[in-house]
Amino acid sequence: VRSNDNKSIGFLKTENRVCVALSRARDGFFIIGNMDILAENSQIWPQVKERLLQHKALGDSLKVYCQNHPETESMVKEAVMFDSKPEGGCQRMCEVALQCGHSCKFHCHPRDPTHKDQYICSLKCEREKSWCR
């Protein structure tokens, strides 16, 4: 449901739809939005909010980790914060050794970890049988 001026929560007001959404959440359930508006405009959401508060599962940010560097974590509070991770990884340089011997010059990226499809060497190279450009 998109944010709107009249604080309408649309189909999230319908108890059976909320129950279906909650019961199908096997590995996780994230609500990105305004829990107070949900709780103020339905009968089921105050119960959900209370349960989340009891389990300390309600917050104002989302902790995200880099797939390639799991020790690198950040707390995301606003969508604009994802702009600093354009490739979906962290801000570290990839530096994986490519077939040609050069290192990857892109920022950390979870896509194409083998560097065979999208991330090929962009350096000029005089090596025999070079994969470089």
From TrEMBL:
Transmembrane domains' residue ranges: none
This protein's GO CC annotations: nuclear RNA-directed RNA polymerase complex
GO BP of this protein: regulatory ncRNA-mediated heterochromatin formation
Pfam families for this protein: AAA_12
Domain DNA2/NAM7 helicase-like C-terminal: 1-35
The protein's name: DNA2/NAM7 helicase-like C-terminal domain-containing protein
